[in-house]
Amino acid sequence: MPCKPQGSYMFVLGFGAHPMTHEYKVVRILYEKEHINRFKVPPKVELYRQGIGSWREIDSAAAPPYYIVEFMWSQAFVNGAVHCVAYDPSVVGGFRNLIVSFDMVSEAFSEMMLPPALAGQRSTCLSNKLFGESLAVFCGAEMGRSSCCIWVMKEYGVAESWTKLFSINLPGVLNKTLGFRQNGEVLLSTTNNCLISYDPRTKTMSNLWNKGEFILI
Q: Percentage of residues in the chain with pLDDT exceeding 90?
């Protein structure tokens, strides 16, 4: 286990593997509290390598000066790097969301810009997923919403290639976006205890779970 700080803190974990050696790695990004409603940036970063079997700290100067979203946080492992939604705390009175990635080969951080339609949204309503071999972002996982939209980065690392695939209107209030199924359908959960599979080709929905019972389809 990594060391535990003495004071209050929050953290997020990123999990992936070296694409050539297939060695598994875990990166822990830890934010120590410096005020009742504020955490220190840049965060402390630690890396665990399966081959070595121990944690080591990464130079704090290389850590991103952003907050990675901790509430219902998500990650996507694409192109040898783990990706998380983050926001810039230096933006006063607003949001500037972006994607922060950690490369499992170089063991370094980088950032990707989001399209304007997502950059100004509330950070907690964004989550990133894997769409085939591409990076995708769901927008809509926020209290009171009954719809969501899905964006995909068509060309990895090129911000101009972000493309909105489609929007989904739900019969209930959205609770969480879970990801893509192997058949290309989107898996979602609602606050009225439904697990829904949405087919973007036919624009139809199927209930997979409803009030504690599986619905076989």
A: 43
- pLDDT over 60 at 155, yes or no: yes
Amino acid, single-letter form, for residue 101: S
**Phi, psi for 127 (deg, rounded to 5):** -150, 145
Q: In 10 A of CB 114, how many CB atoms? A: 22
The domain ranges of the chain are 9-168, 170-217
Closest CA to 196 of 184, 215, 183: 215
Give the global pTM. 0.85
The string of DSSP letters for 27-68 reads: EEEEEEEEETTEE-SSPEEEEEETTTTEEEEEPGGGS-SSEE
Cα(30)–Cα(44) distance, rounded to whole angstroms?
A: 5
